[in-house]
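Summary for the steering committee. The consortium agreed at its last meeting that each partner would contribute one worked example illustrating the joint modelling workflow. Our contribution is presented below. We chose a case with several input lines so that the handling of multiple components could be demonstrated. No manual editing was applied between input and output; the record is shown as generated.
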Amino acid sequence: MRRTERRSDCPVNFAVQTFGDSWSLIILRDLMFTDRRTYGDFLGAEERIATNVLAARLEHLQNVGLITHRDTGYALTQKGLDLLPAILDLIEWSGKYDKRTAAPRSFLARVARDRDGLIAETTARLSAEYGL
Amino acid sequence: MRRTERRSDCPVNFAVQTFGDSWSLIILRDLMFTDRRTYGDFLGAEERIATNVLAARLEHLQNVGLITHRDTGYALTQKGLDLLPAILDLIEWSGKYDKRTAAPRSFLARVARDRDGLIAETTARLSAEYGL
DNA sequence: CTGTATCCTTAGGGATACTG
DNA sequence: CAGTATCCCTAAGGATACAG
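What follows is the complete predicted structure of the assembly.
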């Protein structure tokens, strides 16, 4: 994202400019689908983000209101949790087109067959954990 | 995307690394929701992409199989069209959180109330146009 | 353990002139 | 109209040492 000013008021552009870098979605994924919650946890993720980059992304995600920082670690905000449907769609899409995908077949099946239920269930669980 | 090798087989990562740059989704948006189909059309979009960048993104999107190039202009592939649900979710999310969003209220209302219907309708229309 | 601070590199992007 | 070709530049990312 070279240009810092908003390129347009298009909603797709808003999304791209808000979390369309190469690490934000990875961190949100961790907060949604894994038990990683702390700085050290995120560093342990398979993708091997650099320490300074992680710090920068965490700060950015706080600035745009997608996460907060508590004593227990980082937490999703409602705004961040509201990206769950979109991210599930991305997972479903990748599951369909990436032959090497690590997404469990059972999970992909569930997304395809019961997307709404999965969203409801996951939202409930995460809302409880994050106190939303 | 500094690292060119795949960072992991996580489906979220696959999506990020496939179209997670700052222009791919803008082009896909044009092919889904506007009548822009040609190089010149894309250049005319509000976001003002540079000519060389556009050419590079169009080539990339062809390489990853999201679009094709016909005499009539660029077209979505099935793989590209399959990103419609995710993009609609992003639009819905931006509509909710971006005060300045240019997304028409009527469209946002439709997405919220009848997402499945909207997807079906749009998919049908675009499938016909693109011959999928 | 949770970050900062540095230093460095490069891909991505921006501007613009040009070509078939 | 549909791109190429250049040149340039900076933000994003990577590596690693250090600090509280």
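Residues 1-3, 38-40, 43, 51-52, 54-55, 58 of chain A lie near DNA strand C (CB under 10 Å from a C1'). The CA atoms of residues 39 and 100 of chain A lie 28 Å apart.
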